[in-house]
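Bug #77: duplicate submission created two jobs. Keeping one. Sequence:
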Amino acid sequence: MSEPTLTATAGGTPLLAPLLAQWDTSLAMFLARMAGLTDDEYRWAPSPGAADIVLGDDGLFHAGVEDAGQPTRTIAWTLAHLADMCWGRADYVDGDQIYLNDDEPFPGTATEALDEVQRAADRWRAAVAGASAEQAAQVGYSAWPPGMDRDLPFVDIVWWMNRELIAHASDASTVRDLYAARG
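Kept job's structure:
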């Protein structure tokens, strides 16, 4: 795998440009790592009780068990969580502020899930790139209710989202490695 190219043209205010470049690089590396993900890998539970997506009464999958206290997560749960954070935070930055946290349907197949994560990540990136220097420093510019967004400058939320992407990409990659090595 070749390393993604970093450029100084990440967009947005200079304060956010390095974070956008880091987002782009981290996302590209993660999606390259997930290339060819099978449905079996996507839903494989690395331990009993692993957080996963669940089929709801509406016949659609949703991010199920919250990971509090869960020792592991499926790749499906991790992808749903990443998409949820991107959609939700973007909506509370420059949208209608109506996104429902963790209650949105999520794809049941690996290919559709990766497409959903890409769309959600692109939406979040656009919201970040559209912020002015003043908005980047503004406390509460992102007003996403379940997070710490209302109490921190937007640049800190952008940093946090990058950290979330990197951490969850690592989680999903490890689960994929464990799946391959399960014997």
